[in-house]
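Quarterly update from the structural biology core.
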Amino acid sequence: MDPLSEVFSLLNIRSARCTRFEASGPWAYRFPAKPAFKFGAVLRGSCWIDFGDGDRRQLASGDCFLLANAPSYVLANDDQIAPEDGIAAFDWALSDVAHHRGDDTVLIAGTFGFEISGAELLLGSLPRFLLIPSGNASAAVVRATLDILDLEIRSTRIGAGVLTDRLADVLLIQVLRAALDQDSGEDFGWISALGDPRIGKAIRSMHGDAAYPWTLDGLAGSVAMSRASFSRRFKSLVGTAPLDYLLRWRMRLARNDLRHGSTVAAVAARVGYSSESAFGHAFKRIYGVAPRRYWRTRDETGTAAS
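Predicted structure, tokenized:
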């Protein structure tokens, strides 16, 4: 499994819901911040998205966008009217399709929930708003998935809910791929680092054998770089030092195994620790609690320790 796929598997991502919005005439709706990934796409018409801090982006037919750790925003086509509450204005409990007068403008959207304490690799790599314009070279692939997703959102056929979830998962990966392919000059941190010939190779090595006793010299040598050059480039792309990244990756794997009932001894061995004590100290350094208490603390408080 490649590193990005591994990270997605550990996030416990849930395709919470996909919806369709149809509107004509002047309109403006405000949507709340949400600790999630959210995608949106304009199937017909145009509008804009406004984050309220001077950042307004125009959206045209065929454009797709991704919100990371979605902030509050306004979707509108008229700035002369006060935005309504986009949640309260429609009966979302009964329908995945919302109507405002007509269908000159049509958007679809999907929200993905995830394990917050495991999402920092992706959330730290992505801007809050990521636009894939209709002219993007990958837009045709994204649009094909959007068209099928739109049909399923409106469908009453058996299995529509399952298909909607799976298509939304596919679309999320397609949007990330398209963002990397569009060469906008935007820095995607860890995700961009995966595409670097040397740093990407080092990351894949750490992910491929997390229990191996990697050293800074060993990692640098494996990609034919000096220790100093490797450390500088790794930190500039990933945002953290190589061995700190390795530690945090090991602890993410450990946390996932503990979630699924593995013993502390087995988890410690899997991620390269010869003693439970050494593993426990490393785990507590990252998550603030001992391994045996981590998921118990989560169950008691409703949120995982971060």
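Residues 196-301 form a domain with the Arc Repressor Mutant, subunit A fold (CATH 1.10.10.60).
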